[in-house]
Amino acid sequence: MKGILAIIDTLSEEERKEFLLRTKRKNRRTDVKNRELFQLIAAGKKSGLDVKLYGKPSKNAYHALCKRLQDSLIDFVASKSFSAETSEELSVLKLLLASRIFFEQKQPKIGFKTLAKSEKLAKQSDLYSILNEIYHTKIQYAHLSKTLVVEDIITSADENLKRFQREFQLNQAYAVIKSELRKEGAASKKVILKTFTKFDIEIDETLTYKSLYQLMELTAATATMQRDFKSVSPFMMEIYHVVNKKSHLSGKHRYYHILMLNLMAITAFRNKEFEASAQFTATMEVQMYEDNQKYTNRFLEKLTLLKALNTYYTGSPDVAFELLNGYKGRSLDISLLLVVCLFHQSRFADAYCTLRKFKHSDDWYTKKMGWVWVLKKNMIEILVLIELDKLDMVLLRLQRFKRHFSKKLKDIGEKRVLVFTGFVERYYENPKEVTSEQFQKSVENSFDWLGREQEDIFVLSFYAWLKAKMLGEDLYQVTLELVATKR
Q1: 181 and 309 both lie in a single domain
Q2: How confident is the model at residue 195 (pLDDT cuts 50, 70, 90)?
Q3: Which residues of 23-57 are buried (b: 16+ CB within 10 A; e: fewer)?
Q4: Do 350 and 402 have their domain in common?
Q5: What is the mean pLDDT of residues 352-356?
Q6: Domain limits at 471?
């Protein structure tokens, strides 16, 4: 049942309805229980499902039904993905498959013509693994052509194999980098360069768009975990300069180009470089609307988040709220950002109402969004509960927070969060103490600040609450003052 629930969680409300409709059409008998089981699991029911379905204990029938439902869900996800896919890879694979069918049907002329078209598209998109299959097919049927030279095909195949092996080497390097970063928590650029030296890889124009994106994504992911975007910013820009040198290919690799623009916009924002972030965001939006708006829906959530963040932290909260509330899809990131913005505007009751819409457990959110996201959710929830004076809930949340995150935070060398929660607890126990000179000195001496420019914007956003309490000033205004980079 866990497998079924995991798959259902990946489906949108529309996709769930579509699956049930498709299942209804396929069912030949009215007593088939698969739709009913789907609805029970989707509703959060976990125990006694066999009795609910059959009116009596029936474990064997229930397990068989679970397997059929899971197989149907996997088939649905795969079929939907395949039918909606418009990538270059799929186009090339379709042509390759068609060419093989033509060869098998004794139609070599159309077979070679179709194969040549697939080869051209594959070369344009750097699809080395598929090109291996194309050359394999070309060599297999070369004897049917009077114009093809086998030696030339073999030469092309060997050259492509070298490029394929180089890409495979890159994937190996990425795997090593991910492992090292997780194990050591070292500076991302140092680990990346060390690994690239080991595998004899250079960061230059010979890297594909996909490889450049993977490298940028690795760097950004590490910066997120370490809350240090400042030190990786030059390296991210170095990668982006390489991307710009390959700009003539951006249209053919628009998907990866948009992803990289998103990462650059996020990096600039986290470093409080709002103008640069807005420029990357604007370029990203232009790219989204190219190719008949092919990627608009896929990246709309990311675009909305970037626009809302940049407008909110540059003093336009109304614009940010309009963007966040105007998003029609389901997004946990947007919902959490909405909570933070409402909190900064001292709309604590509204923030709490939005928080209560998070129905799943922290374990569920950790699997789906990552532990850093869950950390932020828990921290903002504690602050909201304090403002609403929900005593018992605050104490329980603080205890749970320490239990769940203390070891993790210590392991990555981020003890400041624990120091902050300690001050939060002190404030809640004695609110009047926060304005005392002793408390303020204690705060100044307890935090190991990286400096205003280097300090992460989200770290400053949480600290703003404590500073606003100490100074007796408006939370949002204190936040804007802390994140402003120009004095």
Answers
A1: yes
A2: confident
A3: beeeeeeeeebbeebbebbbeeeeeebbeebeeee
A4: yes
A5: 94
A6: 332-483
**pLDDT one-digit tens code per residue, 472-482:** 899 999 999 98
Q: How far apart are CA 8 and CA 368, in angstroms?
A: 13
Does residue 301 contact residue 323 with C-beta atoms inside 8 Å? no
Closest CA to 126 of 259, 249, 247: 249
Q: Is residue 164 part of a domain?
A: no
Question: Does the pLDDT of residue 1 top 70, yes or no?
Answer: no
pTM, 2 dp:
0.71
Is 184 found in the same domain as 272?
Answer: yes
Q: Number of structural domains, the chain?
A: 4
Q: Are residues 444 and 460 in the same domain?
A: yes
pLDDT reported for residue 369: 87
Mean pLDDT across the chain, nearest whole number? 84
477 located within any domain: yes
Asked if residue 191 and residue 114 are part of one domain, the reply reads no
16 with 45, same domain: the answer is: yes
Highest mean pLDDT among 107-116, 164-173, 459-468: 107-116
